[in-house]
Amino acid sequence: MSPVDSRDRIVVLVIALLVVLAPALLLALTVGFLVLSGDLVLGRITLLEFLELYIIDLVLIAGVGYAVYRLTLWLVKNRLPESLDVLEENAAGGGSDDGLEGSTNRGGNDRQ
Which partner for 58 in 23, 68, 96, 103 could form a disulfide, CB atoms 3.0-4.6 Å apart? Predict the structure, then answer.
C-alpha cells in the first residue's frame, strides 16, 4: 500500500466521521439551546425523540452537503471554462492575468 492510498483512506475516514458526528454535535447544540430557553425538560424527553432529532439533523446536513456538491459541479462545468478562456486571452495578448489592465495603482490605496 502506497502512502497516497493511505492518505486517501484517511481523508475518506475523516469525511465519514464528520458525516456521522456533525448531526450529533448539532443535536447537542439544539438540545442545549432548548434547555436554556426553557422549552425542553431533559427528564421528559425519550430516546425516540433524540433519535428523531438526530435523523432530522442528518438529513439536513446531507441535503446541504449535496446542494454544495451540485453547485460546485455546475460551477466547474459552466463557469470555469469561461474564466480559463479569459485568462488565456489575457496571457496571449500580453495583458496581465489579474483583470486590471487599465489600473495604474495596483498595490496601493487610491486615497491620498
Answer: 23
